[in-house]
Amino acid sequence: MAKAIQKRTLETRARLIAAAKDIIRENGYEAMRVEEVVLRAGTAKGTFFAHFRDKDALMDLIIGERIDEYLDDLQSLPAPDTPKKMAEALLPLCEFMTSERYVFDVILRYSGAAAQEEIGTIATTFGRQVEILEGWLKTYSYRNDVSSELLAEGIHAFMIQAMALRFCALHNATAINDRLGPYLVAWLQPKSG
Amino acid sequence: MAKAIQKRTLETRARLIAAAKDIIRENGYEAMRVEEVVLRAGTAKGTFFAHFRDKDALMDLIIGERIDEYLDDLQSLPAPDTPKKMAEALLPLCEFMTSERYVFDVILRYSGAAAQEEIGTIATTFGRQVEILEGWLKTYSYRNDVSSELLAEGIHAFMIQAMALRFCALHNATAINDRLGPYLVAWLQPKSG
DNA sequence: CGGCATTAATGACCATGGTCAATATAAAAT
DNA sequence: ATTTTATATTGACCATGGTCATTAATGCCG
Fold this sequence. Notes:
0% strand; Arc Repressor Mutant, subunit A; DNA-binding; Tetracycline Repressor, domain 2; homodimer; 9 helices; 193 residues; mainly alpha
């Protein structure tokens, strides 16, 4: 049996999401409070949790949506033909992901598909990102001793690493791309065995 | 001026830590509640926060201590001469780090030196780990087109990636080492340019 | 219509981490 | 020993996410 979702439901949900986005636009992701969302949306608190498993589930949705926009941009770009250019192409996405400590935390938490069962929006975007990277890797052959899937996963790992070090007191002097660039060169164009 | 810490302070602190460890031993990391710690230690709640910035700071301490033990083990081992053996050597540490979703979350949060200013225990262990890896990399030359520091950071990135995928609904079928092994082979012994 | 079943919304309530002005204790100065 | 200062402890209180039994809409059917 289909769910038979009422129109009202969709409206309420839309109002909640809109309210959350407003708050984020005004004061950033970290500032989002369920109470405030619910107040602006004109619903009771319980309603929020009838629509979203928890606060993070809504964050996952909103952040994931945003990531998807960056991936759209990436996809409209020509495949970069050097590791350095690749790092540059990925920079805007990295910058968004690290725009707030809180945002990066949510992404880390959900990228590993935190919510055990369901695959959330962010986790989905990660799959998509790996696909885009694989496309790039097939366009220009960087190295061919390993599968492009493995290469793509590696790029992902290095992105996370470069971003994480941004928040590290010991290492935050270096810009993301001054770190990601060398990583990708070493990963995609090793000089020898 | 030195702080002139009282003996009492150290005792209280020790009681708090001991209580927390007891709870963890009995019911796991996730189960640790400040209220319960304080109850067992026989102090007021406020005392807890006079000793630790927040709950996570204590977790950082306890988990970091544990990681240090694993690093001691690693250090007492002979340097592994192949990427595969390296992955095997790192397995116990990886298993501890992923023993609970919550533990991995704390590690991720604090590895990037979450608490902006102070360098916590976990962040410190990460520095130490990189040192150990660098030692290994210098003993047997894997590849020499890049610095061993960069290589060590890469190994770290791949460890995180392999562990994160453990919690991913899409990828949790693969064992950590079936993933880490290939990563390290590709990273440390690339076959060509 | 007017009942009837299904789905949505409500808000009082709970769990838990965290704060802070007030108080008690220890160490130093007289 | 008494006063003074520094440090540690306290617990009532707050902030915020999350729950759930109850109530209200909605839509269907005769």
